[in-house]
Amino acid sequence: MAERRTLRRDRVARGRRGFEGDLVVVTGAGSGIGRATALAFAEQGATVVAADLDPDSARLTVELAGPGAEGAAGHAYAVDVSDAEAMEKFAETVQAEHGVPDVVVNNAGIGMAGPFLEHSAEDWRRILGVNLWGVIHGSLLFGRQMADRGTGGHIVNTASSAAFTPSRAMAGYATSKAAVLMLSECMRADLAHLGIGVSAICPGIVNTNITGSSQFVGMSAEDQRRTRQKAARTYARRNYGPEKVAAQILTAVRRNRALQPVTPEARFAYAVSRLAPGLMRLAAKSDPTR
């Protein structure tokens, strides 16, 4: 037990001086927060495994982090995080070709909004498959590798401020992210004796391309298009870039933080959820998509 705690302290101390020589796996690394996180770790000297459903976007991330940039070389893979078999093969390949990761960032996610009664069973399977099962797959598979290696590691799970901000318009999305937050808390308690830290990252409104791909259930195709455009304009005006989230992710790993709300509104929502939950329930009755 004492040896495990010492390993974790050594890793945290080493993290404060950068991530030189570390192997970092990032899912959803083809754009947005995932790409910014992969590049941030690469700039600190890590070798990055960039995984994304879109192989071209993953390769572009590696090109941006590779020769000519400040970071070390990277490796690109195409994988569907919701597919258990595909994730098993991915984890096996990473271990065989590059070794056991020192840090894993389970970041891949999709957006979904709309009334609860408009969500179909397939909608629930899709949102939970990517946002929750993707995190479970990555955490289980790479967490076991870290445990077997015996020198600790760190797992980062991207949740959202929606995890503690109920909304009538985001039943599926908020549920998936709340589950990720609770999963992270449970993992953190369970894996601490192995020297494996676990952090949940909860961004708020961040200017990424998730608004352009989010599904708005219960709307026609044309209404969805208009709503996506409106959301994209709102996020663009907010102008909080994914590189700021990436910086917070690196800090969470260095300091072994359990929970990191990102953006002022996320920190405010978290405080209100703890101090005045009734106020959050009242606010949940509003529909920001209308």
Fill in the keyword field for this structure.
290 residues; Rossmann fold; 7-stranded parallel sheet; 12 helices; disordered N terminus; KR_dom; NAD(P)-bd_dom_sf
Main sheet overview = 7 strands, parallel
CATH class label: Alpha Beta
Order of helices and strands: HEHEHEHEEHHEHEHEHHEHH
State the assembly state of the protein chains.
Answer: single chain
Radius of gyration: 18 Å
In round numbers, the mean pLDDT is 88
Q: Any idea of the CATH topology?
A: Rossmann fold
> Any idea how many domains?
1
Q: What is the CATH superfamily label? A: NAD(P)-binding Rossmann-like Domain
Tell me the total number of β-strands. 9
Can you tell me about this structure?
With 290 residues, the chain is of the alpha/beta class. It has one domain (2-279): NAD(P)-binding Rossmann-like Domain (Rossmann fold, 3-Layer(aba) Sandwich). Helix content is 54%, strand content 14%. It contains twelve helices and nine strands. The N and C termini lie far apart (53 Å). It comes from Actinocorallia aurantiaca. Belongs to the short-chain dehydrogenases/reductases (SDR) family. Residues 22-204 form the Ketoreductase domain. Keywords: Oxidoreductase.
Compact description:
This protein has 12 helices and 9 strands. With 290 residues, it is α/β, with parallel strands linked by helices.
